[in-house]
Amino acid sequence: MSEIKFTKDRLKELVDNENRHELTAFINSLSPSETARVISRLTTEEQHRLLSLLSPSDAADVIEDIPEIQAADLVEDMPSDRAAAIMEELTSDHLADVLGEMDEESSHAILEKMDREDADEARMMLEYPPDCAGGLMISEFLAYNLDNKINDVLDDLRANRDEYIDYHVQYIYVVDQGNRLKGVLRIHDLLFLKKDTLLSQSMISFPLSVPGMATVKDLQEFFEEHHLLGVPVVNNDQILVGVVLPTAVEEAVNRVKTKAFLRLSGIIGGEEFRTMSLLSRAGRRLSWLSINIILNIIAATVIALYQDTLAMVITLAVFLPIVSDMSGCSGNQAVAVSMRELSLGLVRPGELFWVLAKEARLGIINGLMLGLLLGGIAFLWKKNIWLGFVVGGALAANTLVSVAIGGILPLFLRRLKLDPALVSSPLLTTITDMCGFFFILSFASAILPRLGGM
Fold first, then answer.
1. The CATH number of domain 3-127 is 3.30.420.40
2. Which tens digit of pLDDT belongs to each residue from 411-429?
3. Phi, psi of 216 (to 5 degrees)
């Protein structure tokens, strides 16, 4: 039995038995990537039952381990009271990210049920674009008034230890009565200065800060120049609203690179995971492929201009680059999703058959749709239904092959200790070209007399 199947079966057993104590202990024993992977293999009903058995705090830990778009779909389907209780336990940056993936009606309903202070902070963060300082910041920071003393800070830390224990406290910030940033206090100073020293006398004045609309590029350059553990974020009135950590900037840079990679691979509309609905995944890929097929037809008209001087086989040759290129696009989409899920730990190199089964079903749907589109165009052009069957059937068959191979190729290459990013696309292109030529020419040979006269 594979490790993921054992973990999934054990989790389902605990959920079915409603053993809350053992379920919580089992979930806490898993790494974030293991949690994300096993949650993705549960049905939607099983996922909801799991979260209903966990405390809001433990459920929030699970939500933070899975991609935001999956978390948003899961939370949206919960009763708003339960969803609000879980969302209140999320760190501020995760809370804003998950709410940002929801539709406005769902996020509004959850915010209405949340603690007023937490909801106001979330609304403030949602006003910023996701990939700027305001969208990346956390609101869990410590700020004290200029008139406070060192001893006041120490007393507050002791009194609220349980609340602050999960904060990323690297600096103590000092503000005036209007919450405008005035200084920063190092932990070293907090420990070794006299307890009756005023913060205004011990702070570092005129601290570095960034505006809420600072871009990811601005933040990246800031941390490259200033090797700090965090930077305060201020609004237009210089009021302290949050803190951006270097790790948040690194994650944002990776997200930008991932989005660019997915766009180049033809995944439109955001990230895709195989746990999404089949029709949703097919629609995201078809949105690009449907456009791409038209572009390929336009390119192929250059060859078609010479059709009157060429033999009948040249008519088929017009469609050879279309079939091979379109199939390659479909395969590259599967490659992109596999590489993304490998990087997140949602799949492992040994799960070839699971990925193959997922991709084969999608390949059948997209292959049929694209085959019908291209076959119809071929029929309208030459008024020969058999030509439509040949090119449409070849594209449908080659799409199925390319999607299936594209899904498992990165996993297979990873098992061979090869870099999937460097090897997958050229290898897939070769395979799809070869199979595409084989399908269209072999189909045409089988009914050659019916293609005469073209």
1. no
2. 988 887 765 765 566 667 7
3. -60, -40
Q: Which fold has domain 143-247?
A: CBS-domain (3.10.580)
Residue 118 binned pLDDT confidence (cut-offs 50, 70, 90): confident
Q: State phi, psi for 95 to the nearest 5 degrees.
A: -60, -50
Contact between residue 32 and residue 40 where contact means Cβ atoms under 8 Å apart: no
At 279, the amino acid letter reads L
Helix (H, G, I), strand (E, B) or coil at 128: coil
CATH 1.10.357.20 maps onto the chain at 265-451
Other Cβ atoms closer than 10 A to 79:
11
Residues 6+ apart with CB under 8 A from 299: 321
Q: What is the DSSP string of 16-39?
A: HHT-HHHHHHHHHHS-HHHHHHHH
Sign of the torsion angle spanned by Cα atoms 231, 107, 119, 115: negative
pLDDT, residue 33, reads 86
Reported as a single tens digit per residue, the pLDDT across 234-261 is 999 999 999 999 999 998 888 777 666 6
Separate counts of helices (H) and strands (E) for the chain: 22, 7
Residue pair 146/198 in contact by the 8 Å Cβ criterion: yes
CB 420 within 8 A of CB 409: yes
**Residue 442 CB neighbours (<10 A):** 12
* CATH 1.25.60.10 domain position(s) in the chain: 3-127
What is the side-by-side strand order in the sheet with 210-211? 210-211, 231-234, 240-244
Give start-end residues of each CATH 3.10.580.10 domain in the chain: 143-247
Which structure tokens are listed for 454?
């073209």
Paired strand residues for 232: 243
Q: Is the overall model pTM greater than 0.90, yes or no?
A: no
| Residue linked to tokens 């973990």 | 7
pLDDT of residue 225: 92
- The fold of the 265-451 domain, in CATH, is Tetracycline Repressor; domain 2 (1.10.357)
Segment 1-8 shows an average pLDDT of 74
Report the sign of the C-alpha dihedral through residues 419, 420, 424, 426, in that order.
negative
Cβ atoms of 141 and 121 within 8 Å: the answer is no
Asked if residue 215 has pLDDT above 50, the reply is yes
417 torsion bin: left (phi>0), alpha (psi -120 to 50), beta (else): left
